[in-house]
User: Fold these one by one.
Assistant:
Number 1:
Amino acid sequence: MNMVILLPIGVPILVGMMLWMSSFAEHFRKEKKKKAPGNRIALYAVSILLLTACAAAAVVLSWTGDRQLTLTELVDGIPLYFYIDDLGKLFVTVVSVIWVLTSVYCYSYLKEEGADKRFLGCFLALYGVLVGLCFAGNLVTMYLFYELMTLVSTPLVMHNRSREAILAGLKYLFFSLCGAYAGLFGIFVLNRYCDTLVFLPGGSLSPEMAVSYAGILQAAVFVMLIGFGAKAGMLPLHAWLPTAHPVAPSPASAVLSGVIVKFGVFAMIRVVCYVVGTELIRGTWVQTVWMVLSLCTVFMGSMLAFREPVFKKRLAYSTVSQLSYIVFGLSLLNPAALTGALLHVVGHAVIKCGLFLTAGVFLSKYGCTKVSELSGIGKKQPKVLWCYTVFALGLIGMPFTAGFVSKWNLAVGSLTSKTGVFAVLGPIVLLISALLTAGYLLPVTMHGFFPGESETAGRQGNPEKERTDWWMLLPLLVLAVLTVLLGTFPGKLVSYFEELSGLLIG
């Protein structure tokens, strides 16, 4: 019965690859047929229904019963192993919600971009890969799907095939592979000294090995943290984010920034809390450098976002900063801080996906790429700008939004972490970053609704094209409601994360 674990993994990957290969066959066909509108509607209807069914199956499998599956043995003693645990449940639920909402949005957005089959093929296959990553039961299985995630997501960055998109995709691929190879080096070391690479809450490394080989193990963990930090946008391997987001289609930017970057954090949690254990690095140079890098990234990302005039690039720098909130919470090795970090995984996924989807509306309807061009946009798109405002307030951390709950727990966790100067420095940096976040997000709302006499009253567009249909508006409304609900009624979610954090760190 546990073979059903493979359904939400294999079905999207197989269907996605079939669509992808079909798009290439059409591209090289000599006689190109004009596509009927009904064919496009049927393609999206089937894709969305299939994705929704796979997402529902993945979530139901995650929250019902204890499931594990050993598919095959890769090498002696290292199986391709799947196991659905508490951390996997969290991430697969977040991925499924974001993926379904973004797939609905894609129908209208990609009318202008074109190449529907190619995009949908990558989009479906990437969902299956991410489910496999969430369900991975050991370090090697996780690494295989982690690499697949990079390979399958790269075509989304390159989708429009412009020179800038190709270069951005190659840069994303280079940074991601460099980070993944650093992670692979660490896996080789851990395989030598750990009794097993299977994920166990609290870690599987024996205390005797941790004492006898502390130096080499700490060095290996540090290299892995830097490597997996590339996907999470942590210094020094963060440069791909502001390059990739402006050229990728907005739905691709939404899932990259809202979901895929979180799997850098996911890999860090697996290594620190499920393999080596937190005691190996607590109070060592590894923890100190990790905290320094995360706080530097928080501040640097916010400052660069504050100074950036290009809207999507500003949001990309914001992701660099906000992801390091999560990394900092993890680096404190404190249950309360880890609770805040996990809450920010959920809240940031919802909020940042919403922000990039609003950017997609402004770009597709009016061609607005810079913040200065959004003046008066509220007169043309009031519903969309109100949704943007909710997301902005959530990212700042205003009360009754998801961002407030996560940042409050991060601050409390930092103050009670007994990490010396970092216990106080952390909340200070987070507060400065929140002020900078208000400085680079709220002016869009203010100038959008109140442009002033000297400013343009919104970019003029084609009246027929200006209408925002429900395919684009509905996902924004759902994400805005989730932003408020997660901040207004966080009780059960906080309790779940507190229990999980206590289990991992104690």
Note: The two ends are 34 Å apart (CA to CA).
Number 2:
Amino acid sequence: MRRQLQAWMALAVMAAAGALAGCGPDERGAAKAPVVTVVQDDAELLHRSPTRIASTLDDMRALGVDWVRVTAGWSVLAPAPRARRRPAFDATDPAAYPARAWAALDRVYAAAGRRGMRTAIDIAFWAPRWAVAKPARGADRERDTIAARAYAEFAEAVARRYPRAVAFTVWNEPNHNAFLLPQWERVGTRWRPASPHLYRAMVQAAVPAIKAAAPHALVLIGATSSIGARRGAGADDRMAPLTFLREMACVDERLRPLSRPECADFDPLPGDGWSHHPYSLELAPWQPDPRADNVRMADLDRLASLLRRLHALDRTRRDLPLYVTEAGYQTDPPDPTQTVSVDDHARWLPEAEQIARRQPSLRSVAQFLVRDLPQRPGTSERVRWGDYQSGLRYVDGRAKPAHASFALALTARRSGATQVRFWGLVRPGAGRRDAQITVREADGTWREIARRRTERDGTFALTVAADPSATFRLRSGKRVGAAVAGAR
């Protein structure tokens, strides 16, 4: 039975400010839209004491965060989530859900708002058992419709509960086998994509329901994971994001319409933007993935280009802008199974930010976790460190070097033998901000070599006569960023 339930969807774990709501993609010749900062840490914001939650939100505000991303878990909120039969209740009415189930989300929604941050909500995993009950033999298409309808009713309830949320995302990483199954289905001797068509049904049902309940909120689709297989070898193989997107849009690799039953009644994909999680994992952010259908940080143009082409072919209702809503690096320490040091972490986050912001259609950048998650009990290092160590702080609350570089991001590039080209971001604050670049002298003191007022979005770029092998640092007011040892 368990496997049969998964066969529809193991709607399964893992887990851009104000005026941007409703903002569409750039028109040709128009000024680039603002880019907001999104941070998610469900463990800290939904499962800790009120005092610690307040402290985490204060930290996020001080870092310059615009959107607080949290998960509205279907089985967490729904009544009788383990029951085989659906209870009798109006699933579109938030008042029909257990009142205590909303408490954690209510608290974050209100507390973030008091601090001037907006809340973005993933309407996501897992599904209650009664929403994925085994269908009658031969009723697969009806099964898909019923499951999508049940999800849309829950999505409507969430949007009615939080109508002033800045954004809602339809599910989380549907191309990942931890969140949606099956990813692939066997047809004869080959494996054909299944999850994109299941997810498209969810999107087509949920987007209008969310829009009706919260007409001023953005509705994001996709939330795709960065890597996967282009050709499946089993139902549980996670799928490459561009493979997933093409299948969801019912086109083949040459963007020709697919002629298969799932695509017979295709409607252009709705939504206000495409969400993506461009984890580079063990690679530096400037290193592309050699597999053409994967989209790590260096590969964002692959995704943006495909979205533009799909809109030109009327496969999407609008030219979907790109929202990076989750990203980060796991570090050693604390996790000895990881390959990224805390010094690389501090340097790579600004590099990733600069790369992402080169995309004209980008609307948000993201950081996954404020604080590392604790170890889990287990018999091996890999099991004990199975959760996420991508925080800006260690488990005990001490700041990693990346905490400073997230607030004040600085990259340095060699520009000949005696010059350095800098790009920087002063994230906290609004409008033009003061930025100073300093260099470390031989005696350990720091000397200012450049001063600049940022653009209104907090960014700046300049080239300075300096030794490219020196160590640099960004300052703004009393805040100091992490050191950058040598220009790249």
Note: The first helix runs from residue 2 to 8.
